[in-house]
Amino acid sequence: MGIGFGGYGLYLLISLPALLLGFWAQLKVKGAINKYSKIRTIAGFTGAQVARKMLDSNGMSDVRIEETNGILTDHYDPRSNTLRLSSNNFRGISIAAAGIAAHEAGHAIQDEENYAPLKFRAFMVPSVQIGSWLGPIIFIGGLLINWINLAWLGVAIFGVTAVFSLVTLPVEFNASNRAKAWLSTSGVIYQQENDGIKKVLDAAALTYVAAAIQAITTLLYYVFLLTGSRRR
Ligand SMILES: [Zn+2]
Fold this sequence. Notes:
By secondary structure, this protein is mainly alpha-helical. Helices cover 74% and strands 6% of the residues.
């Protein structure tokens, strides 16, 4: 079994571009949110008001909107039908707050409409929580004791994580598209503000693309390591 420097070199070769894309995406989303959380919207609604209006206009006045602690902790909780916005976005009157609040409202509407990728993603969560750490352990264990089928089992278990990161993409893009479409016609956002909304939401989407590429390249690395060591 040769996981020597050749293996680590291969890992860097495969993973470095994905890691760099991930760092770049993080910088980009922080930059966009930093910039557009300081730009007040003309209509002057808080993020909480934007989300309320979007949900009500979709006949979803039963979904609660709560303020939550932390930065970028915004999420929709399907179990309690509650949309939680971080204080910056709950109280904030800004282009970033409006965009993020409408994106989260988009997830609530996906839930209401039984949007298939959202349901599939929620179904996968428990297995991903286990597979993301158990997969690599089983894989490395299989390599160490030279039991190739066990290593492949580890690859398969970790593979669930990669599939999950792919299923996340349509869920996130669709929520942002719903947000953009509703905001541009709601009167909450003026025409000249749409560009800022797009920049914030597209930067956030890029972080999910980077995460998916990272998961897939890690999976590919495992596969290369196994198929490569077999030929040697
Ligand atoms: Zn989202």
